Amino acid sequence: MSEPVQKNNTESLGATTLYNEHQEWATNLGDKTIHAKRMPGFFRTVKYFTESLWLLFFVGAYLRWDGKQALMLDVSHRQFRFFNLTILPQDIWMVSLLLLILAMTLFAVTSVASRVFCGYFCFQTAWVDLFTWIEGKIEGNPSQRHKLDAAPWNADKIIKKVAKHLIWLLIAILTGISATIWFEDAYQYWHDLTHFNLSLLETVTLVTFTLGTYGLAGFMREQVCLWLCPYARIQAVMADSQTILPAYDVKRGEPRGKIRRGVAVDSNTQGDCIDCFQCVQVCPTGVDIREGQQLGCITCGLCLDACDSIMDKIGRPRGLIRYASLDELDGKPVKKLYQHPRTWLYVAILLAALGGVIYGLTHLGALKLRVDPERQPLFVRMSDGSIQDKYTFKVLNKTDKDLRVNVSAEGGVKGQTLRCDCELPKLVAHGKSTTFTMFVRVDDKNVLKDVTKLQFRVENTEDPTMFAEYNSVFNAPKR
Ligand code: SF4
Ligand code: SF4
Predict the structure, then answer these.
(1) Ligand 2, atom 1, residue with closest C-alpha
(2) Ligand 2 centre from 429 Cα, in Å?
(3) pLDDT > 90 in the chain, percent
(4) For residue 66, how many C-alpha atoms fall within 13 Å in the half-sphere facing its CB?
(5) I want to staple 241 with a disulfide (CB 3.0 to 4.6 A). Which of 8, 20, 189, 326 is the partner?
């Protein structure tokens, strides 16, 4: 990976407005603010669309289901509410599979299309895009923004800067609130917030998210992608020479050179790149893609839009910068998508994990039962000659209300009777495991084997479809 470099250009191109700000364009080390130009185009439209999916982050927590928040990571009660499902720590394996799905999706997409996630979906990219859009609305185009930054402080500069930072702060606060309400009841949170009644933890969380958003999106911007993001570092191992990514067609573009209105270009001595710097000026990370693949490229495709519009204007074919694999640009054979074994491996793992989550969700009963037979002694012979086994029942109630359950057993020994050390039906508290002891007693003459299979069942008294079963055994003396 080469470092971003500075290029100079003082020419202007016919009707195309060119800024000369690249003359002051610093290497992308964070010492100067990048004010990227916005140009319309296909990838810019796609980017607006994908980034707008983040609106769900702001509104999703207000969704109600059955009178409660539909989606909530309820940390204080150690449960995740997903519509009418409550996922408790016992089902945390599903969350692990969910994370595996997200990771494999990211790996598969990266192996096919490089850092496309960064360019179109990443929250840092999306928030920076929003913040710089606001900056552009208040301070003007990139050239005007550079001039304003360099200008001495006066009333106009103060008004513009204060307005921008106030709006940034407002968005940062809204982001902080929106992040917090996924962890507790959204409406209760707003009530506490407006009555200045937030707890210390809530206040710290809000302040942390607010300052984090304000600092990362407003000030650090592309520097986060360059120096802080771990994904930028590891994505290189997932991509190969078949991975498609924004690439400059060197054979077609070089030797680059300026053109002037009315002056014919000798295509034998000059390539298609007219060195207009539009691709650099639209780049949100300050990359000059013509210098090859770089760590700073977030694969957003905005330089493709810029270059295509230039090609249209000078009557050359589009695609001087295009999504292409390095093999394609080198003239090597290009493999089809299904010929990438690594991608298939990612997809296979993803599908296996997805199957696990679907299985878990469809088998996620409201009750969960575990039965531990007494080991020492395995059985007790009673004074009347009957045999009695003792079992410890653990009933996990995953619903959000207390339930009463009855206990029964299938199989086992003929004529067996069940007795509880408690009152039946047993009350099982919501969101936790309730433990009690059951005894199974049989007449010795009915016992045919020393180990007999039986199945216990606990069932909600009000809703028999809500039940849980557990396979166990009845132990008796050797026959
Ligand atoms: S080089 Fe092109 S694709 Fe890469 S970040 Fe810059 S504008 Fe986006
Ligand atoms: S690659 Fe395209 S946009 Fe970039 S300088 Fe050359 S002609 Fe201009």
Answers:
(1) 273
(2) 67
(3) 62
(4) 10
(5) 326
Amino acid letter, residue 194: T
DSSP for residue 266: -
Three-state SS for 315-375 is: CCCCCCEEEECHHHHCCCCCCCHHHCHHHHHHHHHHHHHHHHHHHHHHCCCCEEEEEEECC
Structure token digits, residue 287: 């990359």
The candidate with the shortest Cα–Cα distance to 362, out of 101, 85, 111, is: 85
20, 274, 302, 309: residue to mutate for ligand 2 pocket, most atoms within 8 A of CB: 274
User: Can you spell out the DSSP letters for 225-240?
Assistant: IIII-HHHHHHHHH--
Q: Which sequence spans correspond to the domains of the chain?
A: 1-53+88-151+221-364, 367-475
What confidence tens digit (pLDDT) does each residue in 378-433 have? 999 999 999 999 999 999 988 878 899 999 999 999 999 999 989 999 999 987 88
The answer to whether the predicted template modeling score (pTM) of the entire model surpasses 0.90 is no
How is domain 367-475 classified at the CATH fold level?
A: Immunoglobulin-like (2.60.40)
Distances (CA, A) of 423 to 406, 411, 436: 10, 24, 10
